[in-house]
TrEMBL record:
Domain Polyphosphate kinase N-terminal: 15-40
Transmembrane intervals: none
Domain of life, source organism: Bacteria
UniProt name for this protein: Polyphosphate kinase N-terminal domain-containing protein
Length: 41
């Protein structure tokens, strides 16, 4: 039988984590857009 793990976090922690993940993704996309070895078609 598998047990569930409950992690105590506040809603604001989850919101902050989601926003930081979005910013990190955007920075990765921008870094690829600046890379001239990657064609943009």
């Amino acid at each position: 039988m598998t047990k569930s793990v409950v992690i105590e976090t506040s809603q604001s922690d989850l919101f902050l984590s989601r926003e930081l993940a979005t910013l990190e993704f955007n920075f990765r996309v921008l870094a690829q857009a600046r890379d001239t070895s990657i064609p943009l078609h």
